[in-house]
Specification:
alpha+beta; 194 residues
Length: 194
């Protein structure tokens, strides 16, 4: 319940700073800019994402999303960040660390999205870098993983420029836009401690 309440506080959770962006946990008042950006970018995003439910952009669905995020935070399983441009605070995308595993593995998976008007301007790489620093720093993780479809060269470029290494190929890895799709697999390990 604590994580759920944090999502409704004026300044919940960590704020990750990049050069051109900052990341923070989503808040209830983010609904309108989030829904507008996702609606405006639907044709751009849908080829790379799981099928959107019919009510995905409604306020009740957003509230349910926040509740799910709160449960994941409470369990330490995920950190869902919204990404904002630093110069004007505009919501431009999101970065999510999820499937966080502790014990002998100390790993997480990273996923991300960016609205079409903000794509290919360096924001995503800056946001990914801030999330990497958080994962290896504050969270103390040892390894991060990510994946993208073979034809998604911009996403692969973000990962490679951010320090990920390509590690393999997984047939029918994730169900994207209603179809099981192959993915390129990427990973990175925390730098050695100084």
């Amino acid at each position: 319940m604590t994580a759920f309440l944090r999502l409704f506080q004026p300044d919940p959770g960590p704020r990750l700073e990049g050069r051109t962006v900052f990341l923070r946990l989503p808040r209830l008042h983010d609904y309108k800019p989030w829904a507008e950006l996702r609606a405006r970018s639907a044709a751009f995003l849908k080829p790379w994402e799981p099928t959107w439910p019919e009510d995905d952009l409604t306020r009740p669905a957003f509230r349910a999303r926040l509740n799910a995020y709160a449960r994941e935070l409470e369990l330490g399983e995920a950190f869902p960040f919204f990404m904002f441009r630093r110069d004007d605070g505009t919501l431009i995308g999101g970065v999510r660390l999820f499937h966080i595993r502790r014990g002998v593995s100390q790993t997480a998976v990273m996923g991300y999205w960016i609205g079409q008007p903000h794509a290919r301007q360096g924001y995503m790489q800056d946001g990914v870098r801030a999330a990497i620093d958080f994962a290896f720093g504050e969270l103390g993780l040892h390894r991060l993983e990510a994946a993208c479809m073979p034809e998604n060269e911009p996403s692969a470029a973000v990962l490679l420029k951010s320090g990920f290494r390509e590690e393999g190929y997984a047939p029918a890895y994730l169900k994207i836009n209603g179809e099981w799709r192959d993915h390129r697999l990427f990973g990175m390990v925390a730098p050695p401690a100084c």
